Sequence to fold (519 residues):
Amino acid sequence: MLERRLEGLWRDLQGKKPHLQHFLSEIRLDGIRGFNNLRVVFDYPVSVIAGGNTTGKSTVLFAAACAYKVPGAGVRDYVPSTLFPDYRPKFGEREDVRQAVTIEFNYLTLDGPLSMRWRRGKGWNRSFLGRKNASQPERQLYLRTLSNLSNPSEVRSVLNMSRLKSQPEETPLTAAQIEFAHQMLPFRYSEVVDLSDGKKNLLFASQEGGAAYSELHMAAGERAILRLSQEITQLNGALILIDEVEAGLHPWVQQLLMLHLQQLALRNDLQIIVTSHSPVVLDSVPLNGKIFLDRDDVSGEVVVRPAYRDLIQNALYGRSNEALKLLCEDEIAEGVLEGVFDYLLPQERIRWETVQIGRDTGANEFPMHARSLAKFGQLQDIIFILDGDQRGGEIENKIKNAAGPGVNISILFLPGRESPESWMWDKLKNIRPNVLIDQLGIERSVLTNTMSQLDAIYDSASDTPSEIAKNKFRSLSEELRRDVTEVSRIVARFEADNRESDIQPLVNDLRGILRQWRG
Fold:
């Protein structure tokens, strides 16, 4: 149920994006904290920035905080000189090395695209890339790290409020603010009050028919949710920036929080950017809402990796399970593997839920995945499946080299030495057994005629043989009124049961891996 609500929100928010007043669409960072011309693109109104430690998630978040002129903010608030300070002591020789820095922003506005650049030489200055009479877009902004109230100086500062000779000012949270918290926390409040004195403030909560206590006695998750409830539910059209959004929150509450943040973004025209290490948070946004940062092992530079499909994401970001994981190139390869497992799993008495197949990465990205998985100690759990036309090519060695010396890595190939579509076409063209015809739901003569017509149509095509085979197979699948994965699965399942088929080496390799994995 929650997943369906999220998917509906994804569609609505994507449709809302063109109507937002000032949408931050891109940040380019150069010369700061190991960033060399790094481009981070925001394509969905609620973005999650993920990555290992030291990959620059917080740096991107703080850079985003410099994108707008914030109404009511001081001249030193939300500017690079404050958010990216240098250590410059009056005495001593130790100080930060000063270098040229560029932070560039692209916006999508109702009046068209806009760009702005902060640049540091001797000092910070901003420009609008040659646009005359341009000004920095104005927008409300919220920047917060959801840390525990555990820093000694922070606790001491709040405790000093109890020694005031005058009573602190009391501001009750509104019904809407408290309701935001009620949707995620397991109890209900009769009242939540903000006690404040100058810049110091403290929340005080009263539960219905229960205890009354300050946030000094709140669990970290309760405090985080109440703080968010207080500070963002009344904002409209704002940019919300939250570092480590999952801090102190149970996985179920993390998912609820991301649901309600997206609902709030839709209702109040918000753009939200959060950083996270949590796979639950990552799962709560669509693929174009995920931004993966990584630090290249060779250059040391921070790079943006393509958004990983679930299998890679789960391996890198803490989603451990006992499934056998395979990574292939596309939906055709996925169908072939599903067909083989349809044949193997009942024989080995293994359930389908214990096999995961990831795809849509492309063979050229396999070395990058191997390097990242090796860094996180997850490489031993992944089997790489390459198309048959990659056999004997360079990509196998690139994957092994990326994994590092002495690392045992499993690489298998689909049958044949041509593309999977060509292999499938050949099997269907030379089809004999009626049982396969029955499974495809087409008469033999109709199948033969359709394939002959497609051969004639594509005979003079100037594309590569691989592209021609792919297009012919897709056209045939449409004639069969099935998707390409389903047709591939049917053919591979039948071939796996044929002892004379050239798919048998793959069948035997996967059988051995299944038995080893089970043991």
